[in-house]
Amino acid sequence: MLLPVHKIQPPQWMRDPDLIRVLDTLNHNDVNARMVGGCIRNNYLNKPVYDIDIACKLNPEMSIDLLQKAGIKTIPTGIKHGTITAHVNRKNFEITTLRRDIDTDGRHAQIVFSDSWIEDAKRRDFTINSLYADRDGSVYDPTGEGFTDLQNGIIRFIGDPEKRIQEDYLRILRFLRFSTRYSQCGFHAKSLDACAKYKNGLAQLSDERITDELFKILSDDSAPTAIQKLFELQIFDLKHDKSQELESLIDLQKQLQKNDINSRYYTSELTKNTIKNKKINLFINKIDRLKNNWENNIKKSLYFYDRNVVIQTLLIIKSEGVEISDTNITNAINLPTPIFPIIATDIMTHFKIGEGPAVGKHMKRAEEIWVASDFKLSRDAILEKI
Question: N or C: which end of the chain has fewer CB within 10 A?
């Protein structure tokens, strides 16, 4: 019988009537469901709790039946893998049946359902993520190591690190993220050695999964330490250790309250090939173009680029040790974007021509004249100079 290792006074999020309703519905005749993972970890670390995951003995069909009979909407979000979502008052609670792996290939796992909290805990990644809790605040530690590691700030894999990594190679990046974010004693040596040994397994993963995890790493102030470790382990074939520049960039962003993960990605010199989001790629390409063609002209930069591109580019340049004045940064934030005073009909009227290529040619020349005047010439003055 699994016994609690600790008991907490249930915080406000644990007293949420909608959460209690879901748990009580699933636990109608036994302790079938408990909160698990990040919500318990973050509660102990005094960090915000956003998502509440629930582990459940019942198979998905039984959970759906009980919840629907109680008037709770369910969504079969990942029913093949044992996961459903309970939707109550615009809140989502992810419920996953206890599982154990029967086969893994480094990307996906074949699972079977279980009714054992211990089996379910052993297939998770880190000891600190294997804590479960009842709604009365009773906390359970099936691995026997999670609670102690959480208290001591130790981030390590459950059981054999090599086996955990071979189950899912993304855990290499997760280990770096969790270690830099939560560890109080650096990188767990045995776990880090296993990451180094199996780093080539990351090539088997989809670009989307890798990018998502890298952006999670870069979203945290501790990102420079993780990037430095990626360089030391020669993961992603990084050519330079950009941790110092990244640290400087993050400091500048925090001072101005202009945090931006895309510019952090750029500074880290991580490959753009993994990014499939066209909007992110476009933003990074604009930063690259402006940085390589910087003319110390804020108005011109604001006219040809989005404001955030200009701001982030200046912060990147400054983080690399190049002089960028505070005035330039302030102007990038506050100056209005110049608005070209000429429209196509102005050209057509002035030159007495109809629509066609000539209009575009004159428009381009008009813009060149206006930009060269530092955006000062009026509409009529521009037309006179064309």
Answer: N
